[in-house]
């Protein structure tokens, strides 16, 4: 069974390591531009609960039989102080920021990313938000440890460049310009042609994932 749930109610042990405990965006001091540059599972879990209580759901997770296909995170920039250190400059303080998105290796290039992005934007639109912003990377190749979304992916999904930069531009999208939010995203998820998944794997702990 495939479904989309909120990040705050997801089993974070099922997120790909080091994502479960990653504190890249929540860290106020400048970090290397890499997922997992700072990790603390307990604090990461608490941060998600705090944002959900103070602002609302801060992410979406796509599941198949309890296994994570992928997830996306978003929140007001105040909850992502690392954004102050990015080379293109800080984001608009009043606009929700999509921070990162990661897709399971077996589910990549199957439509899961676009579906999660639409799920995030539908959630934000239904909560009265008018626009969404996101940092992006112009790099190509393996995105497993990149803490932002690919620029080409965002451009294909309606975003435009709000503030250019050769490496990490800031993009923005007007939610009113996008398609209807009545689409049944779980039905779309169920229709995706994904490979038969391997048996349930043992969760990877942060200690095992240390490089």
In short:
This protein is an alpha+beta fold. It has helices spanning 41-54, 112-126, 151-156, 185-191, 206-209; strands at 2-6, 59-64, 67-75, 97-103, 131-137, 149-150, 160-163, 170-174.
Domain count, please report it: 1
Q: Could you give me the name of the CATH homologous superfamily?
A: Gcn5-related N-acetyltransferase (GNAT)
Largest sheet: 8 strands, mixed
Low-pLDDT ranges: 203-211
Termini separation comes to 34 Å
User: Could you tell me the mean pLDDT?
Assistant: 86
Rg (C-alpha, Å):
16 Å
3D shape: globular
Overall structural class, as computed from helix and strand content, comes to alpha+beta
Helix/strand order: EHEEEHEEHEEHH
**CATH top level label:** Alpha Beta
Based on DSSP secondary structure assignment, what is the total number of beta strands?
Answer: 8
What keyword list fits this structure?
22% helix; globular; alpha+beta
List the helices and strands and how they pair.
Layout: E1 2-6, H1 41-54, E2 59-64, E3 67-75, E4 97-103, H2 112-126, E5 131-137, E6 149-150, H3 151-156, E7 160-163, E8 170-174, H4 185-191, H5 206-209
Parallel strand pairs: 4-5, 5-6
Antiparallel strand pairs: 1-2, 2-3, 3-4, 5-8, 7-8
Care to describe what's here?
With 211 residues, this protein is α+β, with helices and mostly antiparallel strands. The protein has a single domain, classed as Gcn5-related N-acetyltransferase (GNAT) (Aminopeptidase, 3-Layer(aba) Sandwich), CATH 3.40.630.30. The protein has helices at residues 41-54, 112-126, 151-156, 185-191, 206-209, and strands at residues 2-6, 59-64, 67-75, 97-103, 131-137, 149-150, 160-163, 170-174. Strands 1, 2, 3, 4, 5, 6, 7 and 8 form an 8-stranded mixed β-sheet that branches. Strand 4, helix 2 and strand 5 (131-137) form a beta-alpha-beta unit. Mean pLDDT is 86; it is low at 203-211.
């Amino acid at each position: 069974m495939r479904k989309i749930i909120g990040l705050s109610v997801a089993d974070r042990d099922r997120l790909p390591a080091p994502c479960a405990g990653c504190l890249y965006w929540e860290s106020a001091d400048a970090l290397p531009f890499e997922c997992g540059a700072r990790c603390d599972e307990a604090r990461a879990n608490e941060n998600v609960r705090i944002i959900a209580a103070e602002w609302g759901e801060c992410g979406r997770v796509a599941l198949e039989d309890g296994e994570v296909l992928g997830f996306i995170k978003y929140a007001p920039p105040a909850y992502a102080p690392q954004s102050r250190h990015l080379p293109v400059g800080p984001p608009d303080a009043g606009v929700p920021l999509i921070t990162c998105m990661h897709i399971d290796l077996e589910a990549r290039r199957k439509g899961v990313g676009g579906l999660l992005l639409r799920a995030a934007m539908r959630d934000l639109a239904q909560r009265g938000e008018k626009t969404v912003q996101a940092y992006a990377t112009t790099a190509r190749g393996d995105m497993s440890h990149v803490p932002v979304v690919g620029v080409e992916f965002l451009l294909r999904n309606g975003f435009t460049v709000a503030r250019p930069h050769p490496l990490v531009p800031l993009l923005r999208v007007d939610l009113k310009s996008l398609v209807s939010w009545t689409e049944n995203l779980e039905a779309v998820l169920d229709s995706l042609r994904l490979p038969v998944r391997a048996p349930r794997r043992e969760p990877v702990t942060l200690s095992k994932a240390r490089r």
